[in-house]
Amino acid sequence: MLAHNIPSVIFTGKLDDSFRKKIYTKGIVDYVLKEGPANVEYVVSLLSQLKRTCELDVLVVDDSNSIRSYIKHLLVIYQFNVLEAVDGVDALEKIQQHPNISLVLTDFNMPNMDGLELTKQIRRKHRSQHMAIIGMSAFGNNQLSEHFLKLGGSDFITKPFLEEEFFCRINQNMALLEHIKKLKFLATRDFLM
To answer: Residue 35 needs a FRET pair 20 to 30 A away by CA distance; which of 67, 74, 83, 192 works?
Structure first.
């Protein structure tokens, strides 16, 4: 499956740490343990999300080439269209050039314009119902994440992170945007016609 660039999910009854690490080095999207109905719902939600991701543009903003490359690699596993920016100024230009960006992953500490200022600038034109912003920092603390969220950030993750946590946060934010989109669609339709 992976040789043909088909996203793969492992649904298993048992999993140890060494097998989990092996899964992620192979480029597997995710694993799910067979523990009950909630896990089946998660798989269905994950497969539904994978079907939509190839239509979604994501912007990764980080001044570190290696971190941008790593995050891009993770997002490509999920079939996202990934754009990159080296700082907040570059990110604003990319957002203007690519109006279909629905998710921005931004580092906090960058030259020219940091992640907090970038978030403020994005929120002046793009509401949280249309674009999710996930902040990232190696200097994670409660005050930084709280400040970021109050400025309009959707989520915050501390680097280094586990791939599972990264993907769960991406999926939750994208699922929320999809639910909002569906609700807006339903609110503008007359079902009696």
So the answer is: 74
